[in-house]
Design brief:
The complex is a heterodimer of chains A (564) and B (224).
Chain A (H helix, E strand, L loop, with lengths): L2 E4 L2 E4 L6 H7 L23 E4 L9 E8 L4 E8 L2 E2 L10 E3 L4 H14 L17 H10 L16 E2 L4 E3 L9 H9 L5 E4 L6 E4 L10 H7 L5 E3 L12 E6 L8 E7 L4 E7 L12 H5 L12 E3 L2 E3 L1 H11 L10 E6 L4 H15 L3 E5 L19 H7 L6 E2 H9 L5 E5 L7 H9 L3 E6 L4 H5 L2 E4 L8 E4 L5 E4 L12 H11 L9 H7 L23 H6 L16
Parallel strand pairs in A: 1-7, 18-19, 18-21, 19-20, 21-22, 22-23
Antiparallel strand pairs in A: 1-2, 3-6, 3-7, 4-5, 8-9, 9-12, 10-11, 13-14, 14-15, 16-17, 16-23, 24-25
Chain B lengths: L29 H5 L1 H24 L5 H6 L24 E2 L14 H5 L5 E7 L11 E9 L8 H5 L5 E2 L16 E2 L1 H6 L32
Antiparallel strand pairs in B: 1-4, 2-3, 3-5
Chain lengths: 564, 224
């Protein structure tokens, strides 16, 4: 593989790589604002300027300048090399690049940084980007000087509403055009553009339009400064108080990798951020997924319910035993509902209890109904683990809930043990059908039709409160970390299932998550200690995101965080 | 020849008695032994101070306590009635400064609670209601609580505040209360405190949205 040298360190590059991309892959940080690995090259911020040494035996391209000589108290003629933007300069074999090692580059970075901060309002205390702002970071790394301009900075519009999700502050904007490129290349909806030039430049929305496509929050995510802020996160928290957990987005079957940012002091999630995984979501997430973090705490079932009255978990388990009394006489009258909303661990616990101890043979799978999808990331299946739930019960393939209702109508079932709270069928119809049964027990994280219809509902942890493995639509098993402590009385669903089994008099073997995972089939658990996840037959090329996003589709093994 | 074990310096040397340091005994003269004359001497000193203090109190001749405290000897200040003057930059109980329209200057940026080493500041930010001219620019503290029992009066919160909203120039020190709850200073109490001149504002003017100096004009209203 051909190589280039950056500051004397030899790094490989692939044909077509720019200097910054090769450096990024090798873990060398060249400061930049406008370049993003998933977007096309704009080369307008000039922060990534590097010195490219001439080939041996050739003179360097240099510029004649006047440099202030403090000793002579006058300007003296001097020369400096012509610097090149690393984001645009293609690598050539044997090229020698000076980045941190060149004084000219340091001077240029400092000057660029000073230029970008000339008209910046420096309202960091009331800016939501403070703490994760490139302007702050690079000021500290490359400038470290006070402001020399004493004139009033240019004033531009502030707090402009771009759409239902985004607010724009033109004074903080450095017009790097990342947001414009996200709209053009990722969302395929060119709704943003630059207006005016120079220090008057600002981003505007097309006349008569709003920034309202499905990837608007990505414009905020890529904004290196505080110009674009999300209305959802705006003014809610200071980022340095937040901690991040590596989670899997629960919005649909794509299984985008995300960071869930939460405040451990009040146990509250604040936002989702996409986590780079070239095999799944590259660098992006959709708006619905970004906002789906709210479901970790919203609409939760926080106490056990017995006949829709609050009860302790012990009382609810006793009531569940009563409900399921007599199930052992005729196991074929027990129907088990797995959940596409719950992790492999939870589904396996219920499946294991049902097959090993209850002797059930009829499995169903519940979940949210189908929704809108697109060719970029969003899947029509709005459940994060449909494939996982089906794989767990592959021996007795689970059927849709509609067939359960038919079975109930024909009097085939008397007992239902269900996981999850959502149903894809009409809630009223399901409730009527389930009310005819002898015993209905659900383990649910949220208040939903299934939890309402059950006589006994046990409060399960939501996905953010428990570790779990989720299998996305391509068959990639991915692990989601625990972020929050359980709210209310909630406990992990697998633990509740284990306790339910022990209450019914069965010796369910696992009491900890590690024990449960050892009992699970290999491939159903992702992450450390587990065998490699089953990567289904689906091609790794992520359909449209790859083609849409200029050259970000290349799989970068070093950066890929696939837990598989 | 085997080496002799070195003696342990912490144990008593064998065979020799312990010799202690001679301590001078108090004089056992007749007047000390009699006890009464010493009592009378001590009472004399007490009475001298008693009459001096009484005279100064009656005639209002008490010297300045700060200067007096520099002199050798003990100074008594009759505390609640009489207070030691605090230096100009004394860090007392906090106050929240106000804008001209009596709303808090605080923009709930949480810099003070971040800087606080005692973690005694708890702020809940809220957004100004729709239609307010500050809506979208700033937020305000819907709740601002300082636990004065936890506070170490280091003044970092004042240093950290970017908008001069929290100050420790009230000249008050934490008063002994009879319950912990009373040490929890909430927003309205903090806003009601004033500096030593009685002002609840600060000398530094604020640039409000809408003022010509405030960043955030439309380009049409600016001169370029």
């Amino acid at each position: 593989m051909p190589t280039i040298k950056i500051d004397g360190r030899e790094i490989p590059f692939e044909s077509g790589d720019t200097i910054i991309r090769a450096a990024h892959r090798a873990g060398i940080d060249i400061p930049h604002y406008c370049w993003h690995p998933g977007l096309s090259v704009a080369a307008n911020c000039r922060m990534c300027l590097v010195e490219v040494l001439p080939p041996p035996g050739r003179p360097a391209m240099s510029l004649d300048i006047l440099r202030w000589d403090a000793a002579k108290q006058d300007y003296v003629p001097a020369a400096k090399p012509k610097l090149q933007p690393a984001c645009q300069m293609a690598c050539a074999s044997g090229m020698e690049v000076l980045s941190d090692g060149s004084d000219h580059v340091s001077e240029a970075r400092s000057a660029v940084q000073e230029l970008l901060l000339l008209n910046h309002p420096v309202d960091c205390p009331i800016c939501d980007q403070a703490g994760e702002c490139r302007l702050q970071d690079y000021w500290l790394e490359h400038q470290r000087k006070g402001k020399r301009m004493h004139q009033e900075p240019v004033h531009k519009p502030k707090a402009v509403t771009f759409g239902p999700t985004i607010v724009y502050d033109a004074e903080r904007c450095i017009v790097c055009t990342r947001c414009i490129r996200v709209c053009n290349e990722l969302a395929q909806d060119p709704v943003l553009s630059v207006r005016e030039r120079g220090n008057l430049g600002e981003i505007t929305v097309s006349p008569g339009r709003e920034l309202d496509h499905n990837y608007t929050l990505m414009t905020e995510h890529v904004c290196p400064v505080g110009a674009l802020t999300s209305r959802d996160f705006r003014f809610k928290a200071r980022v340095w108080f937040l901690r991040s957990a590596r989670t899997i987005c629960q919005g649909c079957a794509t299984g985008c990798n995300a960071y869930l940012d939460y405040d451990p002091r009040n146990n509250t999630p604040y936002r989702h951020r996409p986590r780079e995984n070239m095999a799944v979501n590259t660098y992006w997430m959709c708006d619905d997924g970004m906002l789906s973090y709210r479901h970790a705490v919203d609409g939760r079932l926080l106490t056990a319910l017995v006949g829709n009255d609050d009860a302790s978990i012990e009382d609810a388990l006793a009531a569940a035993k009563e409900q399921l009394g007599g199930h052992a006489d005729d196991p074929s009258r027990v129907a088990i509902v797995l959940s596409a909303q719950h992790s492999n661990e939870d589904n396996f616990a219920l499946y294991h209890l049902a097959t090993t101890y209850l002797g059930a043979t009829d499995f169903f799978v519940s979940g949210r109904p189908l929704g809108q999808g697109d060719d970029i990331l969003i899947s029509e299946d709005k459940n994060p683990n449909t494939r996982g739930a089906v794989q767990i019960a592959a021996v007795t393939p689970p059927r849709p809930v509609a067939e359960l209702l038919q079975g109930i109508a024909s009097g085939q079932y008397a007992y239902v043990v269900a996981l999850g709270s959502d149903l894809e069928v009409d809630a009223g119809e399901a409730q009527r059908a389930l009310s005819r049964l002898k015993g209905v027990v659900t383990i649910a994280a949220h208040e939903g039709p299934l939890a309402k219809a059950a006589r006994v509902a046990l409060p399960a942890c939501s996905w953010a409160e428990a570790e779990g493995t989720y299998v996305n639509r391509k068959g990639l098993a991915q692990r989601s970390e625990r972020a929050l402590l359980p709210h209310g009385d909630a406990r992990p669903a697998w633990e509740l299932i284990g306790r339910l089994g022990r209450t019914l008099g069965y010796e369910t073997g696992w009491k900890t998550l590690a024990e449960l995972r050892r009992a699970m089939p290999p491939g159903a658990v992702a992450g450390a200690g587990a065998p490699a996840a089953v990567l289904g037959a689906a091609p790794p090329a992520h359909t449209a995101a790859a083609t849409a996003v200029a050259d970000g589709s290349r799989v970068e093994p070093k950066k890929t965080e696939a837990t598989a | 020849m085997a080496k002799a074990t070195p003696s342990n310096p912490w144990t008593k040397p064998a065979g020799r008695p312990v010799v202690g340091k001679p301590v001078p005994r108090p004089v056992r003269s007749a007047d000390v032994q009699a006890y009464i004359p010493e009592i009378v001497k001590g009472l004399g000193i007490t009475m001298r101070h008693f009459f001096k203090n009484t005279k100064e109190m009656v005639l209002g001749q008490k010297p300045d306590p700060v200067l007096h405290s520099l002199e050798p000897g003990v100074t008594t200040i009759s505390y609640p009635e009489e207070k030691r003057p605090y230096p100009e930059r004394f860090r007392g109980i906090h106050r929240l400064t106000l804008r001209d329209d009596n709303s808090p200057r605080c923009v709930a940026c949480l810099c003070c609670s971040t800087a606080c080493p005692a973690q005694c500041i708890a702020i809940e930010p809220a957004e100004y209601p729709e239609g307010d001219r500050r809506q979208g620019y700033e937020r305000y503290p819907s709740s601002f609580v300082i636990d004065e029992l936890r506070c170490v009066f280091c003044g970092y919160c004042v240093e950290a505040c970017p908008v001069d909203a929290i100050r420790m120039d009230t000249g008050l020190h934490a008063v002994p209360y009879d319950s912990r709850e009373q040490f929890i200073y909430r927003r309205d109490l903090l806003m009601s405190l004033s500096d030593r001149e009685g002002s609840r504002l600060t000398a530094n003017r604020r640039h409000e949205p809408g003022d010509p100096t405030h960043p955030g004009l439309s380009r049409e209203a600016a001169d370029h």
